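ok so i was messing around last nite and threw this chain in just to see what happens. nothing serious, just curious
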Amino acid sequence: MSLLPVDEARARILTDVEPIADIEQAPLALAIGRTLASDVTAIRSQPPFPASAMDGYAVRSSDIADAPCDLEVIGEAPAGHGYTGTVGPNQAVRIFTGAPVPDGADSIVIQEDTETPESGGVRILAPVQAGNYVRPQGLDFARDDRVLRAGQILDAGRITVAAAMNYPDLPVRRRPHVAILATGDELVAPGEQPGMDQIIASNGFGVRAIAEKDGATVTDLGIAQDRQALIESAIDRTVAEKADILVTLGGASVGKHDLVQAALVARGMKLDFWRIAMRPGKPLMYGRMDNLHVLGLPGNPVSSLVCSHLFLRPLIARLSGTEETDPHRDAVLGCDVGANDRRQDYLRSKLQRRDDGMLVATPFEKQDSSMTRTFAESDCLVIRAPHAAAAPAGEACRIVLLRDPA
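result:
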């Protein structure tokens, strides 16, 4: 099987992927980060009445056209307790922010533009236009307005407007369920004492963080030793728990001790591809078991994290029914880089922003796919196309943004 270009691999992973159909009602307090399953229309208007935008006096603008002038104060309207009478000629009502504008009044004079004469009432110091500091009914939204749309991710602003519309909960898609299985006799969990020939399993924690940040729920299947029966048992558990995505870490090649692919095929997976023309991440595998998407990531930690950004994130977004946030940006190189070979390269890099706003990406000198510290210090991945010629500092490039530059 020849090496598959990155863009083609991504397209094949996302082919025929439908958003999760299961819909839940999420209380607003627990809805942050969830994906709306349907449009949300206003069931009331906001404000529900013409409301004062400031503390001051509700007046008839025609009465104060020749201000300064004195008006009779006939009542008070604090927020939550509107004045029930009608403002007549040469009258005013003391009003506070958020209170309904009384009948008869058409404007608010802010208290800074008034005085209190010894004779009582209020002195208006300057005229105002009709509608001054009055929020009309439905200024924010009107009943039956479509305010939120299916596919939007609920953030602070969208949850706030839903609350203002008087929705205690919202219809959301079930979160994609991702199961993560690490494999290999050489791995032990963090906190355990590794043997002479063992290392600490780290990939799964980074992959889990990426998946959960994008709204998925995650099941950690632990570490399966290099026994096909153990791997098949973990696959069976994944199917039984009705996961949407199975992510395996390591063992997806076809070497003597690479048993993941064989175990998956034995359990009914239809293999789509397993080698990508990219670095790091060449031994990437993808297949389907009915509705279960299987993404076999390389065992090297950086390879698995890069592949998660490039392939797992868009798959989660598609299952969630959201549009994937494009992580690609334009930048310039901060140092010279050499020519590239036939594989698309993703160089871990630091990122700075020049005074003119341009992003400057400087790749690390060492790019070995086992170096987690370098990835932790990276702000972006500089993309080097297959067979790209050597490029000097200052040349334009494309990057995958990992975090905003400091």
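not much to say yet. The mean pLDDT is 95.
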